[in-house]
Amino acid sequence: MKTYRSSRLAGARLGPVMLAGILALGVRPGAAQGSEATQAPDTTRMTLIFAVFPGQTAAKQAMRDMKTAQQVGHLESYAVVSKDQNGNVIVQQNQGKRGATPSSSRASKSVDGVVALLGRSPSGGPTDTAGYTAGTQAGISKPDVDKIQRMLTPGTSAIVFVVADLWVGDMNSAMRQAHAKQVLDAKLLP
């Protein structure tokens, strides 16, 4: 009788463990369909931060000093750029967050879009559709595109990065403590 009771108790304990294991594996109807079919749309509110530093290497040094933010995962995507005395934009560093989540993908596209914009001339006014199109590709408004293009001047460097809205205040403080000349927050458009 003792053996029967032990096996019944073991079975009673094993049942919930097996159920938890099945749930952890994510077995559900439609699981065989591609991950695209089951992935929820990105609803994360994010902000692009553009911080300009004096000199062509100051932004790169500031990024080195932000190792903790990189390791903890606050930064969805970032790039370090500079503009030489001739007006040429140089990408010194570029990195997206590991893992292909909808928010990290959107952040990477936004950073890449802003970096591409930096090599262009600022838009010409209210009838300039190229500036509007470029802004939507970067995921930010046209006025923010214009500001960003004017902020990076020859002989300066900048960090372009995207964070969840929760971290904007902390990142702005970090940029100011790193001696950024200018810091702009641009909300990513949905």
Topology:
Elements: H1 2-25, H2 35-38, E1 46-54, H3 58-65, H4 67-72, E2 75-83, E3 89-96, H5 102-118, H6 129-138, H7 142-151, E4 156-164, H8 168-177, E5 182-187
Antiparallel strand pairs: 1-4, 1-5, 2-3, 2-4
Query: Structural class, please?
Result: alpha+beta
Q: How much of the polypeptide forms β-strand, as a percent range?
A: 15-25%
Number of structural domains? 2
Structure annotation, total helices = 8
Strand order of the largest sheet: 3-2-4-1-5
Strand elements, count:
5
* Shape summary: globular
Largest β-sheet summary: 5 strands, antiparallel
* Oligomerization category of the chains in this entry: single chain
* CA radius of gyration: 24 Å
Helix fraction, binned, reads 40-55%
Average of the residue pLDDT scores: 74
Structural features, described:
The chain is α+β, with helices and mostly antiparallel strands. It folds into two domains: 2-38; 46-187, no CATH class. Helix content is 47%, strand content 22%. The protein has helices at residues 2-25, 35-38, 58-65, 67-72, 102-118, 129-138, 142-151, 168-177, and strands at 46-54, 75-83, 89-96, 156-164, 182-187. It has a five-stranded antiparallel sheet with strand order 3-2-4-1-5, with helices on both faces. Strand 2 and strand 3 (89-96) form a beta hairpin. The longest helix has 24 residues, at 2-25. The termini are far apart. 28% of the residues are buried. Residues 3-38 have low confidence and may be disordered.
